[in-house]
Amino acid sequence: MNACRLLILLSVLSWAPPTFAADRVAVPAPGDLPAPARFGLSELEKALTAQGLVASTAAQRPVLTVKVEKGQGAAGLSVPEAPESYAIKVAGKTATVAGRDAVGLMYGLLDLADQVRLADASGTPAEQLTSRARQPHLRIRAVNQFLFTDALEDPDSWFFDERFWRDYFAMLARTRHNLLDLHAAYDLESTYFPNIYPYFVTVEGFPDVGATAAQARAGGVPPETAARNLAMFNRILRLGKEYGVSVALMNYNAQTWRGRNARAMGGDELVAYIKAACKQFVAACPDLWMYGFRIGESGQPESFFTDAYVAALKEIDARLNLYTRSWLATKDKITPIAEGFSGDFYIEPKYNGEQLGLPYHAITTPRRWAPSYSYESYTDWPRNYQILYQVRANGTHRIFHWGGYDFVRRCAATGNYADGAGLSIEPMTAYYPIENVYHEPTETPRNYYQWATERDWLWYELWGRLMYDPQTPEALFLEMYRERFGREAGNRLWKATQASSRIVPMIYSYHCLGPDHRNMAPEMEIGAERRGGITGMPAETGDYDDFLTTHPLDGQVMASPVEYVENILGGTPDGRLTPWQVADYLEQAADESQAFLTPLSVSSLSRRGYAAGRLMAGAAYYTDRAYTITAIPERLERAVLIATPNDDKLRRGFTWSFALDHPAEVLVAWDMRNPLPEWMGAFSPSGEAISTSDRDASPYRLFSRKFPAGAVELGAAPNGSSFYFVVVVPEKEGLVAERSTDEFDKIRMDVDAVAALGRYYAARIRAAVRVKLFEETGALTSAPRTFDRRAVAHRHELARIADGHYAPIREHLRMHTQWEGFTWTGREEPGQPDGATMAAGPRLALAAQRRGEPRLGHAPPAS
Predict the structure, then answer these.
(1) Average pLDDT over the chain, rounded to whole?
(2) Cβ atoms of 220 and 256 closer than 8 Å
(3) Is 422 helix (H, G, I), strand (E, B) or coil?
(4) How far is residue 202's CA from residue 256's CA, in Å, rounded to a whole number?
(5) What tens digit of pLDDT does each residue of 52-75 get?
(6) Phi, then psi, of 794 in degrees rounded to 5
(7) What whole-number distance in Å separates Cα of residue 194 and Cα of residue 186?
(8) Which of 45, 75, 291, 443 places its Cα 20 to 30 Å from the Cα of 206?
(9) Mean pLDDT across the stretch 783-799?
(10) Burial (CB count <10 Å: 0-12, 13-18, 19+), residue 35
């Protein structure tokens, strides 16, 4: 391979940050570099400029020379043999970048740009660059986006916006994705998958084949509309090549739209139409890398695909790859189709059904789910196809900010299982609008992005880079947060994101209503299904019969509440994760995620039984009672709660203390049935109150005093009906980002919402176990009702945060909200006096009637 060279001469005496006088940089014209490498070079130039270096056409006495080589070059670099590999060699004042191919060269330049961005002012440029050689862990690193009918029908949509595509492909290149895996077509309103061909080609002899029912009645898609769409699609293919991103397209349906008066085809007529349309479309798209169809739901025999698709590609001698999905198909049906095709044939089995949940192949034998939700026997040899795992992550993650570094790294490492070619990852817009329809148009601070793909930049960064190299350090992504939000805000928000990102996967993995994306939307629903199948409505109501009949995604690792109770009472505990551990995990992740965003630390509590946490509705304010907070003043939403033991109301003459790391306002929440002690004379009434579930004591009046950083000492509450609890409010309003403040606030609200969601499911799990224990033992405690109340309070908190943040959402796959849009308030739990349709009381009463003679033994303590 002939080497293409480019010298970049940097006239720098030190690594100058932007606040210093700028040094001169010589950047000659790129010459004959291929387009992807030119993009990589432009990214390197941007990184240099950000470090205070000014580009010019010439420079003298350079202290760093960057050589760019295509292929092994003459610099003695050892570039890995795999496609898209690269090597960087730093020797003295020279850094040489070489790529196995154009894309590998681009990745090498992007790597060098990353190193420049991570550099500091501690040394010269050459001293901070590192030699390395890299090759892709996964050969295919795909984004699995659906192509929406409304976008194809609207000439002003993102599909026709070249700026959108340039920005999108640039992001895919930076994040090391190399394939855009488009599945088509998909209608956002009906969730139907019409044939994609009528949108792109007009087939002679079939004038009445329309893309939509309305168009079918009108005689089909106008030829000029199909031609316009096809021209734009070809433009998209060419743009992708400029950034080293190939494009694949899978047609989901051989039939046309199933609308009223739309004529269905079958038999020889359907074969003739598909064959003609396939030939016409593929011949018109010479830059298409892979083309495909799905078999399982088609109702067609394998001969149909051989006679229609494979025969068409043979006749036009198409030089592209072919692929299909494994869903509802079998290996013995797919193998003959692959045998009839001379090129590379790929299949896309589902990774963990149409959800994600766990970062490994969890649907294995023994399994509760249909085999087609996993890789089945497709991994067995011999085989005449390659495997590209389809990761249906959009079933689990539909709306809230997510970016778990450890999770993605583990999942990416499994993409080559059984010699797999890679992963095709659904983004959060796979089935949801790419336009920013998630906030009201008037809410300017929350509309900091135009396209949802811009909102989800972290998703792309993590999946793409870690599929290329699972050893990519976490520090790189942390630095992205620092660049975006400022150093302190970036550090804290990154840690909060990592903690928050543990919650939704665990909810789905433990309380798994099913593997289909129509089975469960874990961010949105209450987790009690009416078992209506994939087309059934999710439960707005339910009881613990519903909640207790669910099972974990991986039953070999996690024990359901029912299994746990049976094991513990039968004296056969096992090593699986218990419900208590899952609830602890969710609560700990929720606490950590919000603690990282609280600009205050309360520590050194001097007495046992006192605990610092987040003030919120649903929080327990006593450590030895079940009462919970039901309402707080708005200004205290990010305050710290110090829960106390109510039994300390009986103690006299004692003091206790805690430490503040910043100045703060300390509020004592007082039961006004009790007289104020002398030490409270230093506090003043704030005029505010906190409502609780203790109807006798509520509301607790607040008394305020300002304290500097350091120790705070408080006294006893003798002769009282109840003890007090404490709220601490930081003097500064909150953690503020230096940059991108609107995005920072949006992510922080998502963190708060997901924390409430995690606490909701933790409380439900705890209540479910106690209900089952009572059914089996007759050991009745107040725990189920206590956790019910907490769950309802957390659900209200989730609705308050999320609905104050998002506009009604188009969610037709699972929640079936149709035109009115989904809101969390609209899916709260009405119908019971305490707001809990899954309230434990009725279930406990019924269980008491059915139980008969109590079993002898001990029930494990509540956790």
Answers:
(1) 85
(2) no
(3) strand
(4) 13
(5) 766 555 555 555 667 777 655 545
(6) -70, -35
(7) 7
(8) 291
(9) 84
(10) middle
Residue 847: Cβ within 10 Å count: 18
Residue holding tokens 């120790």? 711
Whole-number Å distance between alpha carbons of 724 and 700: 8
Q: Residue ranges of the alpha helices (H) in 680-740?
A: none
Cα 173 from Cα 42, distance rounded (Å):
12
Rounded Cα distance, 254 and 278, in Å: 11
Please give the C-alpha separations between residue 526 and each of 411, 520, 764, in angstroms, as whole numbers. Answer: 27, 10, 9
CATH 3.20.20.80 for domain 140-433+459-471: yes
The predicted-structure confidence for 549-603, as pLDDT tens digits, reads as follows 889 999 999 999 999 999 999 999 899 999 999 999 999 999 999 988 887 777 7
Q: For the chain, where do the domains classified as CATH 3.20.20.80 start and end?
A: 140-433+459-471
Beta partners for 54? Answer: 24
- Length of the chain equals 863
Digit-coded pLDDT (tens) for 445-480 = 667 899 999 999 999 999 999 999 999 999 999 999
Contact 665, 705 (CB under 8 A): yes
What are the residues facing 354 on neighbouring strands? 352
H helices, E strands: number in the chain: 23, 25
* CATH 3.30.379 residue window(s) in the chain: 6-134
> What is the rounded CA–CA span in Å between residue 535 and residue 550?
18
Q: Tokens 């983004």 map to which residue? A: 427
Residue 420 confidence (pLDDT) above 80: yes
Residues 6+ apart with CB under 8 A from 814: 517, 518, 519, 520, 521, 524, 525, 538
Q: pTM (2 decimals)?
A: 0.89
Contacts of 777 (CB under 8 A, 6+ apart): 569, 854, 855, 857, 859
Integer Cα distance of 613 and 495 in angstroms = 17
Token readout for 558 is: 């996690």
Strand-strand pairing, 64-70 and 6-11:
antiparallel
* Pairwise CA distance, residues 8 & 55, whole Å: 10
> What is the enclosing helix (H) or strand (E) of 842?
helix 840-851
Specify the higher pLDDT residue, 669 or 440.
669
| Nearest 10 degrees: Cα torsion 815, 816, 822, 824 | -30
Q: CA torsion sign, 356 to 362 to 366 to 371?
A: positive
Q: Does residue 213 register a pLDDT over 80?
A: no
Distance, CA of 643 to chain centre: 33
How far is the CA of 565 from the CAs of 475, 718, 762, 775, in angstroms?
43, 42, 17, 10
Dihedral of alpha carbons 778, 781, 783, 786, sign = positive
- Buried b / exposed e over 587-610, threshold 16 CB at 10 Å, is bebbbbbbbbbbbbebeebeeeeb
Cα–Cα separations (whole angstroms), residue 401 to 268, 354, 459, 476, 543 = 49, 19, 9, 19, 30
Please tell me the class of the 6-134 domain. alpha beta
The beta strands (E) that lie in 31-107 are given as: 53-56, 64-70, 86-91, 94-99
Query: Is the sign of the CA dihedral 763, 764, 765, 768 positive or negative?
Result: positive
Three-class secondary structure of residue 661 per DSSP = coil
Position 79, amino acid: V
| Span between the terminal Cα atoms of the chain, in Å | 66
DSSP 343: S
